[in-house]
Amino acid sequence: xSYVAKKGRDALKSMTEEKKDFSKVLVxxxxxxxxxxxxxxxxxxxxxxxxxxxxxxxxxxxxxxxxKPDLYDRAxxxxxxxxxxxxxxxxxxxxxxxxxxxxxxKAKPRYLFGFFNLADGEEIIVDLTKAQARxxxxxxxxxxxxxxxxxxxxxxxxxxxxxxVSLTPIIDEDDLSEEEQKNFEATAEKTFDETxxxxxxxxxxxxxQLEDLRNFGFDVSRLGxxxxxxxxxxxxxEEDYGF
Length: 243
Known about the structure:
Layout: H1 8-16, E1 34-38, E2 45-53, E3 57-61, H2 71-88, H3 92-105, E4 108-117, E5 123-129, H4 130-142, E6 151-157, E7 164-170, H5 178-186, H6 206-216
Antiparallel strand pairs: 1-4, 1-6, 2-3, 2-4, 4-5, 6-7
Helix pairs in contact: 2-3
């Protein structure tokens, strides 16, 4: 296996370019907050799968698609096997309880959207649930022919199950500050860096995954870890994550 990472011009670029703090690219979209943005194109968003359980642990990318099932996936498989065993034994109530636990823990689709933030002209990414993403995509498609001419405001209101995300066009240029207008014009010909989607999320370590599973109530000793806990009943909206 080669230890060479880059050659020639690629190596030169790596040694001279300014290192970017990717943690600042993924921005929080909390209730009551908003961003004035330029939409780079109608295609600047990606889907990924993530594990998250309301009030138990926050979102972490699922690695199963890469051929490396994580500890959450292994726990889900065991819960479904337990459910099948309970069903065969005639305990359908217990089987459904186990299926529900598996559904809560199972990875679900989420979406990363790329924008240019008009506050400073920098690239930003927001992380949305499927329901929130549908609203944003609908707005992008509605104004597809005008996204190169209009700035937009991305906002979030409400709390819990009533949370709503919106993406609305800014029709009046007076609603942009001089700096925002300047950044809108400066990003007109820019292409969003698609490699950022792969860099802004952190896959949790095995120890962190185990801690999440303990918080969920899963007996991690079944994964070869000595730690027994009682299952926890789950309540809440599975799409209301810690963003």
